[in-house]
Amino acid sequence: MNNLNNELNSGAITSGDNVSFWIDSTSILACDKPDRNIETEVLIIGAGIAGLSTAYNLLKKGKKVVVVEDGFIGSGETGRTTAHLASALDDRYYYIENILGENAAKLAAESHSAAIDEIEKNVTELNIDCSFKRVNGYLFLHPTDKEENLDKEYNATLKAGLKTNLLNSTPVIAGGESMRCLEFANQAQFHILRYMKGLADAIVALGGTIYTEAHAENISKKGATVNGFDFSAQHIVVATNTPINDVVTMHTKQHAYRTYVIAGKVAKGSIPYSLWWDSGDVESKWVSQPYHYVRLENFDDKYDLLIAGGEDHKTGQSDEEGISEFNRYDRLEIWTRKYFPQLDEITYKWSGQVMEPVDSLGFMGKNPGDDNIYIITGDSGNGMTHTTIGAMIISDMITGVKNKWEEIYSPSRITLNATGDFLKEAGNMASQYLDWISVQDLQNTADLPAGEGGILSSGLRKIAVYRDYDNSLSAFSAVCPHLGCLVKWNSDEKSFDCPCHGSRFAVDGTVINGPAKSDLGKIHIK
């Protein structure tokens, strides 16, 4: 049995200059590193909420479980969430009903509601101090959306079995007295990393093992290689935000987006604890129709923290709209102050990555073509509940229990009614390969200031370069090792991002987001 340690600082798990509130306000959880070959019943790759929820469920069912994490517990996208717990989905229920059918919409509503209940049960049974609260959520129209769509969503949610009310005003927000909204009862919120600490403690107490700084590769039906050691298992769960075991199949069914978050203090008691979402920009060039989302979190005795997110774009493609990553924060602040003028100065800002499935629902279950490899991905903007659903489905599958949500979330499903969105996303992805002809940020390395990166052409070769603050220059192949797209420089996160499938690489070329499995190749330049 290994120990959980808390001595690391937040800088150990962040790239760029941005640190999420959750990471800043919580000790980072590290465990032992692998030092030998391991044999277990279930090997789980990834120690975010998907991996730890699955591990906890399986341990309660009597399975022997080992979790391996490339970084630290919650150091991936889990630590960058805003931790909304909602059965209000970021794709409308009337859309899900149209694409997947009325029964699928009912099962989606039921499963996300059950996921909130599951998290609440874990918090209660494990006595986790994570500020879990039941709150109401309010969906109001984006200026580009139509009033009739709110009525359609109201009717669709009622058919799906949710408790919703159509209100003539939107509580709290400035101007809300003349803005209709859809109220969702029994939503919730929590402090994600404190919840993760509770799950990790429970996993160790039940006899599970967690390894951190443990890089998994060569994933197969027999297990994986972890830091050079053989980890063999009867079942393998890949819970890594985007699957790193699959090269093509799943990456045609979902697409990576960056999303931005700001947080600032408001006087305690000036805003009631609730969730707010606008309905999304229906005129956006992006298939996902990005929306804004807001909640509160306790800060201290005098203040709460208002946390707002949005301004999404496809990973590696912020320039497609002529809006830089930094300007996205400015736009988000303007939007937030418009509706929440109580907001004080911005204390935190960070960004995260979400995988948007083409038909609105996540992919949780057996990896296509495999009998004993399972995946949890396609979480969209409902990552906390989607991953919890995935943990419930997969723990049932491994223990031979039929789960009624298994089919609608199957990674092997094909949704013909979503062909239009699929073709739009596929066309966008294919167009990125034209960067081989045109992409170049720099004429020469002398143009590159300290702390910045870019793409340089040398004949037919494309080179990713970064100048450190000590003025040293690093250079790598700009070709993503996943499927050959050219990476783009992300000045906000200080990373090189692939615009095709969302792989991301640190300034030293190491891979920090899949689906790429290997680092950018180093190049020596004079």
Description:
By secondary structure, this protein is of the alpha+beta class. About 25% of the residues lie in helices and about 30% in strands. It is built from ten helices and 26 strands. The protein has helices spanning about 20-25, 50-60, 95-100, 100-125, 145-160, 190-205, 325-340, 385-400, 420-430, 435-440; strands at about 5-10, 30, 40-45, 65-70, 85, 135-140, 165, 180-190, 210, 215-220, 225, 230-240, 255-265, 275-280, 295-300, 305-315, 345-355, 365, 375, 450-460, 460-465, 475, 490, 495, 505, 510-515. The strands form five sheets. Strands 5, 6, 7, 8, 13, 14, 15, 16 and 17 form a nine-stranded mixed sheet that branches. Strands 3, 4, 9, 10, 11, 12, 18 and 19 form an eight-stranded mixed sheet that branches. Strand 11 and strand 12 form a beta hairpin. Helix 3 packs across helix 4 (about 100-125). It is globular and about 65 Å long. Residues about 5-15 have low confidence and may be disordered.
Q: What average pLDDT do the residues reach?
A: 90
Treating each run of at least 4 consecutive H or I residues as one helix, how many helices?
A: 10
How many angstroms does the end-to-end distance come to?
50 Å
The major pleated sheet works out as: 9 strands, mixed
Q: What is the tally of beta strands?
A: 26
Principal-axis shape equals globular
Q: pLDDT below 50 for ≥5 consecutive residues: which ranges?
A: 7-16
Report strand %. 25-35%
Structural class: alpha+beta
How large is the radius of gyration? 22 Å
Query: Percent range for helical residues?
Result: 10-25%
